[in-house]
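Retro notes (design track)

What went well: tokenization of the new backbones is finally stable.
What didn't: we kept losing track of which sequence belonged to which structure.
Fix going forward: every design gets posted as structure first, then sequence, in one message. First example under the new rule, 305 residues:
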């Protein structure tokens, strides 16, 4: 693969895989980043998709789609994306163990944010309970905070919070991250509580304590719930991608699946309802097609053609 990848796709669900198929068929170099089993359809059964006769297993459909994309020439790295930044005329996409530079980026990650669903969480949301380290870390300067989660978003969030907070705790049942991210955590000043989980978030007008499953009490002023991979909205808003002006809950795109940033596209659930596989696949097709065209045009300009 060349120094610059033409199309980097963040997300390995229906939208991302379809985008890969169409982009690589237009002679673009394509990299898919993500974990297919985290797609909404991975644990679902599909029967309302055109040409599917009867009920089909979503996990198997994703497996076939990934095999198809890689057979056509796309590369696949099963890692979560931790951050995306624009650097002049290209984008740098940071994962658990490295970074990739691309001419275009397609966001196809979905939008779901998982909650802990424990006592005190709902009441203290916005009063010390947050779901976005990148958004709210600055509010907890010199405070004691905790991050809850087992995967890359939680570890990366805890490491980020070390730059702001006086003390950072990470509560995790069992860490599931790359060796590189695990090494960074081990070498950091984060206080890790393995093999436990949160039973209750305690506080009156704000977060005061966390009650863990082993009955330990952590005195903290902030709790960051980071379950799974980095949230799509965090990646998008940190990059400067514009959200819809009514609900601010999905990325605003045009008919080419272009966002307000040249070279950045969005497809699937992240681009708004209806949250259906048929829509995701269609938008993935459009995004992959136009992202490849954009990258190919950029290459021609670089070579002086």
């Amino acid at each position: 693969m060349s120094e610059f990848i033409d199309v980097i796709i963040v997300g390995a669900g229906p939208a991302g895989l379809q985008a890969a198929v169409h982009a690589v068929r237009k002679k673009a170099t394509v990299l898919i980043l993500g974990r297919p089993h985290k797609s909404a359809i991975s644990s679902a059964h599909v029967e309302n998709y055109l040409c599917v006769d009867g009920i089909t297993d979503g996990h198997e459909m994703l497996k076939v789609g990934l095999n198809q994309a890689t057979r056509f020439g796309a590369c696949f790295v099963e890692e979560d994306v931790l951050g995306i930044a624009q650097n002049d005329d290209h984008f740098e996409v940071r994962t658990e163990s490295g970074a990739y530079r691309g001419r275009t980026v397609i966001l196809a990650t979905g939008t779901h944010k998982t909650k802990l669903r424990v006592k005190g969480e709902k009441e203290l949301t916005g009063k010390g309970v947050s779901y976005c380290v990148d958004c709210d870390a600055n509010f907890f300067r010199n405070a004691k905070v905790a991050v809850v989660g087992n995967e890359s978003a939680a570890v990366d969030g805890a490491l980020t919070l070390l730059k702001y907070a006086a003390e950072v705790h990470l509560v995790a049942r069992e860490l599931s991250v790359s060796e590189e991210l695990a090494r960074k955590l081990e070498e950091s000043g984060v206080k890790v509580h393995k093999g436990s989980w949160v039973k209750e978030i305690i506080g009156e007008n704000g977060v005061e304590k966390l009650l863990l499953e082993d009955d330990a009490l952590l005195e903290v002023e902030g709790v960051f719930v980071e379950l799974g991979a980095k949230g799509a909205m965090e990646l998008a808003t940190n990059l400067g991608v514009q959200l819809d002006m009514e609900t601010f809950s999905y990325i605003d795109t045009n008919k080419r699946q272009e966002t307000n940033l040249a070279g950045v596209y969005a497809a699937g659930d992240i681009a708004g309802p209806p949250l259906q596989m048929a829509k995701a696949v269609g938008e993935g097709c459009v995004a992959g097609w136009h992202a490849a065209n954009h990258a190919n045009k950029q290459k021609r300009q670089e070579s002086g053609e």
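Added context from the reviewer: The chain has two domains: 5-112+231-302, 121-225.
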